[in-house]
Design brief:
This protein is an alpha+beta fold and 237 residues long. Helix content is 37%, strand content 19%. Bound molecules: iron/sulfur cluster (SF4).
Length: 237
């Protein structure tokens, strides 16, 4: 799901109809960038990376849901291969299968799980790539085709908070893992440490909801600007 927020349309109250974990993490990196994104400003990025991401996600989803459709990239397979360092999409599947952390017969696995929660009356809506349940433990997997970054960690912490609230289980019983698929065979799996649900909620309320409520979209300049897709149009430079 893409971020989909209804900004500036409400007139009264909170100016969005909902937030998503990916929009929140984008806002935390740079509120101005989040605003550009929302306004649909022309972004400069290589569409092939997004196409690779969608394609890989659909392949992995199909592993757990046979009725899922494989997304065919508009840029074509040759283009996709050209941007990959190790040229094997099939390699993803081999690695993934070798790496299953438990026998699926021992639990249940659910790809593309829609989750919805709210903070201070603002709906938070997102999709979890893979949610697995085994006994009293819940596993959240987020498949990433980009480079590792802090934003991803925040995103999966928000998912942990949401699952904890929705399923009524403590965050310590939720194992959240970022699964970076980009550079197999040096693929990275990163376990994101547990953070208290209340701490995440307070943080989002203070650092995201309140500034958006006040229509504060200040630029945050830093090393992340180098790979920002709005760098050329950014008013902060
Ligand atoms: S270039 Fe930097 S300051 Fe400007 S929008 Fe992008 S991240 Fe924000």
């Amino acid at each position: 799901m893409s971020d989909d927020i209804d900004l500036f349309t409400a007139g009264r109250g909170f100016p969005m109809d909902h937030l998503s974990p990916s929009f929140i993490s984008k806002f935390e990196e740079c509120p101005l960038k989040a605003l550009y994104y929302r306004e649909g400003r022309p972004a400069e990025y290589d569409i092939r990376y997004a196409e690779v991401g969608k394609h890989i996600h659909s392949i992995l989803e199909k592993e757990y849901n046979p009725s899922a459709e494989i997304y065919e990239p508009v840029c074509g397979m040759d283009d996709m291969m050209a941007i990959r360092r190790n040229q094997s999409i099939e390699g993803y599947m081999t690695l993934r299968k070798q790496d299953r952390r438990f026998d699926p017969r021992e639990g249940t696995q659910h790809p593309e799980v829609h989750v919805r929660s709210e903070i201070r009356g603002v709906p938070i809506i997102g999709f979890i790539d893979l949610l697995s349940i085994r006994g009293s433990m819940v596993y959240i997997d987020d498949w990433k085709t980009g480079f590792p970054g802090k934003r991803d960690e925040q995103q999966i912490r928000i998912y942990t908070m949401m699952v904890s609230r929705i399923m009524g289980i403590p965050p310590r019983d939720i194992i959240a893992t970022l699964d970076y698929l980009r550079e197999e065979p040096r693929r990275i799996q990163k376990r994101v440490p547990y953070t208290s649900t209340a701490a995440i909620e307070q943080h989002i309320e203070r650092e995201v909801i309140e500034p958006i409520n006040d229509l504060q979209f200040v630029p945050v300049r830093g090393s992340h600007c180098e790979r920002c897709e709005y760098r050329k149009i950014c008013e902060a430079w």
